[in-house]
Amino acid sequence: MFTHEGYANHEKVFLFNDLNGRLKGMIALHSTVLGPALGGCRFHEYKSPNDALNDALRLSEGMTRKSSLANLPLGGGKSVLIANGFDGRDRKEIFECFGKHINELAGQYYTGIDVGTTEEDMKSVRKTTPYVCGLNASLAEVTALGAFRALQGICEFEDWNITQKSFAVQGLGKTGMNLVKMLAAAGVTDIKVSDVVQDRVDTAVSEYGATEVNNLHILAEPCDIIVPCALGGVIHEVDVPRLNCFYVCGIANNILTSDAVDAKLDERDIVFVPDFLSNAGGVIGACSDVTGDDHSIEVENIKERVLRLLRNTHDNDITPLKSCINMVQSRLNGVL
């Protein structure tokens, strides 16, 4: 574990195998220094258990970064349930059982909706544990709003008129579609979109005037800003030479396969705005379920944070990713 590629001084990794093997998964707690760990539950098929573990480790670290930069009293965690072999039966039982395992962490971890899970799943989880967030808010909308504010921050830094810029949006799930809707409402007319589900693409084209691009080619599409909004790990080092944009800024978690890809982007003068800054709207929206307080102003603050970040990195010859990681570590060190 301590030599695993995704391990980053995680506090705890909790593995479970229940219901005669029908529920296999893990909860990774990266940090509870700033408060209880919050991070959604991912229900997904993996090539191997090691891949599932790597996902949990990287995603939980990203949640620590996300909550810290958003100035929230939360740490970072993530749960991953392995969906391989799931035949659609007994879904409620699986998620109710998952809730019992969350209880074993005694409030150190709060879960919520993520890739592969739904509001109904979280209602099942809540039957057996109180540590569930986000059921009282439209997190897809608030996540998209945060990303939209990040894009506005980029445009203000560059002195761009957002209506005259081009955006390539990869992934049209609830968050991606909401973001396309916001871009269109702001007057953006050059929106290129892709998704593996054709109906979603058709909706974006017919309702928001988007242009369809093949999902295999979207990253290479000429544009001002590439906006990944599907699964993470979409930009590898080998992808960097074919990018034809000025910025990468999106909603997907862990857009880069590793932090090392950031250096390759920098060599090509492509700026990566860290996803744990641009997609923080969801965790901000869910935070009130933990604290009881309204943190919505932090969603609006994402624009100013991106603007300050770009000014600082431009003046100090450091990439935004490195600068954000340094800020997170400084905040964690200030609490320790």
Essential attributes:
single chain, 336 residues, alpha/beta, Rossmann fold, six-stranded mixed sheet, 11 helices, 12 strands
Helices and strands, with pairings:
Blueprint lengths: L11 E7 L4 E9 L5 E2 L2 E4 L4 H21 L5 E8 L8 H13 L5 E2 L8 H8 L12 H20 L7 E5 L3 H12 L4 E5 L3 H11 L2 E2 L12 E4 L18 E2 L11 H8 L3 E2 L2 H4 L2 H11 L5 H20 L3 H16 L1
Parallel strand pairs: 3-5, 3-6, 4-5, 7-8, 7-10, 8-9, 10-11, 11-12
Antiparallel strand pairs: 1-2, 2-5
Helix pairs in contact: 1-11, 2-3, 4-5, 4-9, 4-10, 5-6
Textual characterization of the structure:
With 336 residues, the protein is α/β, with parallel strands linked by helices. The chain has two domains: 103 residues, Rossmann fold (3-Layer(aba) Sandwich); 194 residues, Rossmann fold, CATH 3.40.50. Helix content is 43%, strand content 15%. It has eleven helices and twelve strands. The strands form two sheets. Strands 1, 2, 3, 4, 5 and 6 form a six-stranded mixed sheet that branches. Helix 1 crosses helix 11, helix 4 crosses helix 5 and helix 4 packs parallel to helix 10. The radius of gyration is 19 Å and the shape is globular.
